[in-house]
Structure formats: C-alpha cells, structure tokens
Amino acid sequence: MASTGRDVVLAVGLVGICLGGAAVFVKAAVETGGGVPVLPIVTVLLLAAGVALARWSIVPGSRRSTARRPGPPDPFGPGAPAPCAPSAAGPEAPRLPEVDSGALDHAAVDADGFEHTVAALCARDGCPQVEVVGGAGDLGADVIATTADGLRVVIQCKHYGEGNRVGSQDLQRFGGTCFAVHEADVAIVVTTSDFTAPATEYATACNIVCVDGDGLAAWTESLTPPPWDAAAAVRAEG
Q1: H-helix or E-strand containing 78?
Q2: pLDDT tens per residue across span 76-129
Q3: Using CA atoms, how far apart are residues 160 and 126, in angstroms rounded to an integer?
Q4: What's the chain's average pLDDT?
Q5: What is the per-residue pLDDT across 134-166, written as a single tens digit (0 to 9) for each?
Q6: Three-state DSSP class for 66?
Q7: Helix 168-175 vs helix 197-205: angle between axes, to the nearest 10 degrees?
C-alpha cells in the first residue's frame, strides 16, 4: 500500500512539472512578444500524460493493473510430491506356527501332553491363536483357539484308555462352563477313547462337538476337516 501511494504521487508530480514548465514557457513567449508555439506545448503535454498513464497502469494493486496475480500453487506441478498410489497388496495374513509331526503323536504323551498335541492340531489347521490353559481351576477348558474366521473354540481333552469312556457327567460339567464362562463359539470334547450314549445325547442337545478316538485319528491324518468346520456345517443346515 505504501509503494502504491508513492508511485501515484510521483506520477502526479511528473504531470505537474510538465504543466508548470509549459506555463512558464508560454508566459515567456508572450512577454517577449513572440507567438505561442501550440504544437510543441501540445506535444509535451501528451508525452507527460502518456508517461503518467503508463506509470499508473503498472502500479501494483491499482484498478488498471494488468499484472497477473499468482494463483495457488499447482499441487501436481513440477517439484510437487507425486500423489500416493493405493497399495495393491492387502493386509498380510497372520503367520501360522510350524507344527512338527512328532507334536501330533497322541499315543506317546500323557494327559498333560495330550493337551499340547490337540493344540498343535489346531495350529496346523489354520488357527492363528492357540493357547493351552488346562490345569487346576480351568473350569473345563484345556485348549482355547481362534480360527482364521474369528471363531472362539474351547476344547476339553480326555486322555483315556480304551476301556474308559467319557460319560455324561463329564459332558455336563463342560457344558455348564464352555458357553457361559468361556464364551465359546464352538465347544469340543476330544478323547482318545469313546463316549457313552448318554454323553453323546447330551452333547447333541447342547451343540457340543464330540471327537472320539477314531475321529481324532482321522483329524490327525487330515482325512476329515477340523471339528469346528463340522460344527459350522451343522449350524448352517439347522
């Protein structure tokens, strides 16, 4: 604003000087009795007016200014960072733990080791999170796993001999905690032996999956899908 005012004052002053000079020239010519040279005076005035107008037209911020004001910078112009392209790759899938075949030998372990072999089966078949929680005060849960689809699987492990079958009381104790306490999406009882008929009936009524010795062998050899897949298929049919 200060620069604009200064330029205007200079332009007006220039015109005033020219006009004053012309007036002195005319007065001198009249006093000496000579004629008034109209053409030179008009020429001088036109030149002064032209200079003043030209000066005014280039004053920044004036109404006659023809200078192009700079616009906002082009975000994609030279020197600007290139726009980020969307990543074609999706989120990485969680890495599954490697399971050695020896970890699946149910016959070579005791009751505590059996829980770990069942946990190894869950890891092998795609559960990214598997935890062995069996012990005193476990309230019936020996293994808790999360499937790739986000299902919470709660498993009770029964490492019994051939003549010792899992009875209905075992199922009832597990049935009272697997859903209400452990919040299972799929509840499973796995045994190396077999189930009594009342135990199987109770499990069916409570949507508990029973895996006996033959079913465990088939699961271990990958001859059947994991028991949580079978439970999902049953639910879909229902």
Answers
A1: none
A2: 445 444 444 444 444 444 444 444 455 667 776 888 899 999 999 999 999 999
A3: 27
A4: 74
A5: 888 889 899 999 999 999 999 999 999 988 999
A6: coil
A7: 20
Distant-in-sequence, close-in-space partners of 203: CB < 8 Å, separation ≥ 6 = 171, 175, 189, 195, 209, 210
In CATH, the architecture of 101-237 is 3-Layer(aba) Sandwich (3.40)
**Residue 64 pLDDT > 70:** no
- Bridge partners of 168, per DSSP, are none
Q: How far is CA 183 from CA 144, 146, 151, 177, in A?
A: 10, 12, 10, 8
Domain range summary for the chain, segments of one domain joined by +? 2-57, 101-237
Distances (CA, A) of 50 to 5, 11, 38, 69, 227: 19, 10, 18, 25, 98
CA atoms 120, 122, 124, 127: torsion sign: negative
Length of the chain: 238
Backbone φ and ψ for 205, nearest 5 degrees, come out as: -65, -30
Q: Give the integer Cα–Cα distance in Å for 132 and 126.
A: 16
- The CA-based diameter of the chain, rounded to the nearest angstrom, is 151
Both structure tokens of 50: 């032209």
Which sign does the torsion angle of CA 188, 191, 194, 196 carry?
negative
Residues 163 and 197: beta-carbon distance below 8 Å: no
**Nearest in space to 142 (alpha carbons), one of 174, 109, 115, 166:** 115
Tokens of 51: 């200079």
